[in-house]
Amino acid sequence: MGHMVELKVVRGDITRQDVDAVVNAANNRMRGGGGVDGAIHRAGGPEVLADCIRRFPDGLATGDAGWTTAGSMPARWVIHTVGPNYSAGERDRSLLTSCYRRSLEVADELGARTVAFPLISAGIYGWPKEDAIAAAVETIAAADTTVQEARLVAFDQATFELIRSAVGQAQ
Ligand code: AR6
């Protein structure tokens, strides 16, 4: 049985987080990319891609999540999830909230207690930032999970402030 997850907000680089699992904003092919995905593959090293190829020969559906090794990052696992590409016309919000729910389900299967999330779809995929933040905060706060701490990692100060005020309003 789950309980309330503690939601923390930090500013920094997700690849440097000392947590059990870091979440990657991947794409359907699951062979790397730019943004957080590029940073995670660079920091984790070639083991991450090798594990992606082994575990996801056919890629991953939008809204779904799955795991690999974190290679040489401090975390033990990467939980990859694929957000909807707003810029390409994928605007079904339930696909975005599904990314957070499915990532926490995978974390529960792994026994991960601390999980760091980027703002899924809010970069290259172009989801409007304030709504991407609302979707993340709402969904994590409502999740039934054994994860103790979910850490939302903002790359820049402006995003950090926006997330902090959204979390403050939700509490
Ligand atoms: N640590 C934390 N946050 C970061 C980092 C980092 N190292 N780097 C970027 N961000 P994005 P998406 C922030 O573009 O929109 C890739 O090519 C960034 O500022 O990484 O879901 C994939 O392969 C933004 O707020 O993910 C896909 O093709 C957030 O992380 C596509 O991009 C997410 O930005 C996915 O696009």
From TrEMBL:
SMART domains: A1pp (SM00506). Residues 1-171 form the Macro domain. InterPro entries: Macro_dom (IPR002589), Macro_dom-like (IPR043472). This is O-acetyl-ADP-ribose deacetylase. It comes from Tessaracoccus lubricantis.
